[in-house]
């Protein structure tokens, strides 16, 4: 083969390699919006937003809000539930900014294991954070890092990065508690509570107060949840 032929052949081969690499990059780097990833610096996405939302509001266990608030909102959620993720930045955020911050209501998260094994691991991580009175903040940051259901997105690195992003959390103690029997027991107790309350979908909001009780399920508008709080006040 002549030198010119070798050069042409080499150029063609190089072009083919470029095309193949481009295809591989395109396939592996397509729409990643449905799969969460921890930022390269090891921090959890959305932590600053959640901390700003909750700054100065009392927290205890799985609850956020003034303990003596007349209205209690229980949110039955699954950490993998995409509708719960939307609620966290919609109806739930509005609830926290409004009645919770004003001392008119407190919000209690009840993490469930409806969807699969990742739900169990994630819920236990929330329970471990609740041991340090950061259950809501932890779960809310987790929603900002949510991946596809049962895809393995609930990794030890992600869970630890969320705990590390919350001021005042003893990460070593949280890590130990997240795999302890008490966390597993808390998740099973939450399931029993959901069954007793007739909950069969997430999110379900059970709003109780002096004026009665209201139950709301699914992708509800913020106004509907706020109206329920007013109705039972």
Salient structural properties:
alpha+beta, 13% strand, 51% helix, six-stranded mixed sheet, Glutaredoxin, disordered N terminus, globular, 10 helices, 233 residues
What does this structure look like?
The chain has 233 residues and is of the alpha+beta class. The protein has a single domain, classed as 3-Layer(aba) Sandwich (Glutaredoxin). It is built from ten helices and six strands. It has helices at residues 3-28, 47-54, 82-89, 91-100, 117-130, 135-143, 156-164, 171-178, 181-196, 222-232, and strands spanning 59-60, 63-64, 71-77, 105-111, 204-209, 212-217. Strands 1-2-4-3-5-6 form a six-stranded mixed beta sheet, with helices on both faces. A hairpin with a 2-residue loop joins β1 and β2 (63-64). The model is unreliable at 1-41 (pLDDT under 50).
Task: Report a brief summary of the structure.
The chain is α+β, with helices and mostly antiparallel strands and 233 residues long. The protein has helices at residues 3-28, 47-54, 82-89, 91-100, 117-130, 135-143, 156-164, 171-178, 181-196, 222-232; strands spanning 59-60, 63-64, 71-77, 105-111, 204-209, 212-217. It is built from ten helices and six strands, in the order ααβββααβαααααββα.
Give the name of the CATH superfamily. Answer: Glutaredoxin
CATH topology: the name is Glutaredoxin
Looking at the overall shape, the CATH architecture is 3-Layer(aba) Sandwich
Shape: globular
CATH class descriptor name: Alpha Beta
As a percent range, the share of strand residues is 5-15%
């Amino acid at each position: 083969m002549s030198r010119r032929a070798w050069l042409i052949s080499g150029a063609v081969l190089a072009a083919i390699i470029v095309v193949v690499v481009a295809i591989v990059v395109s396939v592996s780097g397509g729409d990643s919006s449905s799969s969460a990833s921890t930022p390269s610096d090891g921090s959890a996405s959305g932590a600053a937003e959640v901390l700003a939302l909750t700054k100065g509001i009392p927290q205890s266990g799985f609850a956020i809000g003034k303990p003596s608030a007349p209205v209690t909102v229980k949110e039955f959620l699954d950490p993998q539930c995409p509708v719960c993720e939307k609620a966290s930045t919609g109806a739930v955020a509005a609830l926290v900014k409004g009645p919770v911050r004003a001392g008119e209501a407190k919000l209690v998260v009840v993490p469930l294991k409806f969807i699969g094994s990742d739900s169990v691991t994630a819920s236990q991580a929330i329970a471990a954070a609740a041991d340090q009175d950061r259950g809501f903040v932890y779960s809310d940051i987790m929603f900002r890092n949510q991946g596809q259901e049962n895809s393995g997105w609930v990794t030890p690195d992600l869970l630890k990065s969320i705990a590390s992003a919350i001021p005042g959390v003893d990460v070593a103690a949280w890590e130990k508690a997240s795999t302890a029997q008490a966390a597993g027991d808390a998740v099973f107790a939450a399931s029993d509570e959901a069954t007793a309350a007739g909950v069969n979908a997430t999110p379900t909001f059970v709003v109780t107060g002096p004026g009665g009780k209201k139950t709301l399920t699914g992708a509800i508008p913020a106004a509907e949840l706020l109206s329920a709080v007013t109705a039972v006040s």
